[in-house]
Amino acid sequence: GDSVTQMEGPVTLSEEAFLTINCTYTATGYPSLFWYVQYPGEGLQLLLKATKADDKGSNKGFEATYRKETTSFHLEKGSVQVSDSAVYFCALLLSNDYKLSFGAGTTVTVRA
Amino acid sequence: KAGVTQTPRYLIKTRGQQVTLSCSPISGHRSVSWYQQTPGQGLQFLFEYFSETQRNKGNFPGRFSGRQFSNSRSEMNVSTLELGDSALYLCASSLGGVGPYNEQFFGPGTRLTVL
What we know:
The complex is a heterodimer of chains A (112) and B (115).
Chain A: E1 3-6, E2 11-14, E3 19-21, E4 23-26, E5 32-38, E6 44-50, E7 56-59, E8 62-65, E9 75-77, E10 86-93, E11 101-102, E12 106-111
Parallel strand pairs in A: 2-12
Antiparallel strand pairs in A: 1-4, 3-9, 5-6, 5-10, 7-8, 8-9, 10-11, 10-12
Chain B: E1 5-7, E2 10-13, E3 19-24, E4 31-38, E5 42-50, E6 53-57, E7 64-68, E8 74-78, E9 87-94, E10 105-106, E11 110-114
Parallel strand pairs in B: 2-11
Antiparallel strand pairs in B: 1-3, 3-8, 4-5, 4-9, 5-6, 7-8, 9-10, 9-11
């Protein structure tokens, strides 16, 4: 079935460090890929998305590129801030479907 | 524009009881999806409603049910609660199409604790 595998956490970084969270997927057909972020005590917020191969999604300094050849959608940020501390979820959505399939989530803590 | 609202935010129940959670979608959105979030299983899809009809259902027992009203508000019900039902229940609303252009907006969730 369709599934998402993401890098296990927790990840602890210092401010201004480089962040990478790996995400790979298995899907029938051609899914769209998403990164969601969950801050403490809140619901999920869409961070960025990519709808086809080689698309790059970007938002708030975060980037991810849809790599069909490696079935990956790794999240990167060049210089993290304390406010980036959150749980990050990779997700996929098939073109003919309504439900998102999520990875396990990666907890990121950024220390000042 | 108001976001997705969920009530109540926190709930404590005992085993064997039943519970009803409510979700009000963003104005104009006709689709509501429900997800269960637990530390062990992560985020799992429960069901999705569009114009009062269930279009999709996840792999959960029949104790989990839902419905949607004509104003698009949705409720989910869990009967005969078990300890394992303790979770954060998230609701998401969208316009209702399929695929990536139908962005889902999530509410803050209802934290259910079963004692």
